[in-house]
Amino acid sequence: MRTTAVVLWLLALVAVLAGCGSAGTGGLESAGPTSPAVGPVRLWPDLPPATNPPMDYGESDIQRVPGIRVAGGDVRSVDAVEVVRAEVRAHPDARSGADGLYEETARAIGACVSAPASCPVMRPYHRDLTGDGRDELIVGIRMPEQQVAVRVYRAEGGGLTRIMSTVDQVISVELAGRDLIMRVGSAGIPGYEYRTAWSWDERQGSMLPTRDEIVRTGPSGGRSPAGRASGPGPGSGSGSAFGSVSGSEAGSGAGSVSGSAFGSVSGSGAGAASEAGSETRSRSTSGPAPAPAPSGTAPVPVPAPPPEEGP
After folding, report:
1. 199 exposure class (CB count in 10 Å sphere: 0-12, 13-18, 19+)
2. Of 40, 66, 120, 190, which cross-links 142 as Cys (Cβ 3.0–4.6 Å)?
3. Nearest-angstrom CA–CA distance, 170 and 147
4. pLDDT tens digits for 35-60?
5. 216 three-state secondary structure
6. Of 34, 133, 41, 126, residue with least CA distance to 83
7. pTM, rounded to two decimals
8. How far apart are the C-alpha atoms of 215 and 195, rounded to whole Å?
9. d(C-alpha 201, C-alpha 213), whole Å
10. Structure confidence at residue 236 (pLDDT)
11. Number of other residues whose CB lies within 10 A of the CB of residue 254
12. E strands along 33-72, which residues?
């Protein structure tokens, strides 16, 4: 009797297993053939190593802000306008590089106290970009030709250290996690924009452009037979920003995100034009270098700024 029960149980188990792969039973089904994995192939493996150092874009340049003390290591205790004014006083004639500002911009910064309405220093943001649990200070400076200088400062040893400085004709500046992202329209390739994410690098002790891409954002003007882009006039840019954005700053500056891993901080400026067919990518040492738009060039529309909130 016991043997018969065991045999019946085994038969029932076989019947159940036989039905697992049946259609309509929720069993596993083949997804079809899979393409074989192809590993990277190194081209021209006999090329000798480079003997000259790569071009220095200055991404790792850091600088102590003279005369600024940070109480308790909290960057919220410092005035962003005073920080920029201290840098202008230290480098009054800098027109290029990480400290570069237009002469009229430097004058307007010097008059921020007496003429605050025309002060080009925008409201600051605070965000932990280095991962040390303390916020950094993020400052934007409006300049002519729709350019914006973006600078980031870190509290160190009771003072303030600038860990990022770049200038570009930007569409927007955004925050995503611990990344600061800049978007710039590409006029040399109509219908595209540059997006660059700046991230903290512990080894260099500064923010570096760790991800850079060009993304299609609209219909392209195509190419003429001569190989030059047709459509609206060309422009220059070095950009950044990944994904769509929805949200606002609250408290530490963290933005809420919808449909993307990236949250918006602020938007300012728009792409402007430079020599036809060329793309000028600026980095942290690039100072103001405007180029007036050729006649007939359609400027990139300036996005509406977000609602003002407390820093």
Report:
1. middle
2. 120
3. 7
4. 888 888 999 999 998 887 665 555 55
5. strand
6. 126
7. 0.61
8. 7
9. 19
10. 34
11. 19
12. 63-69
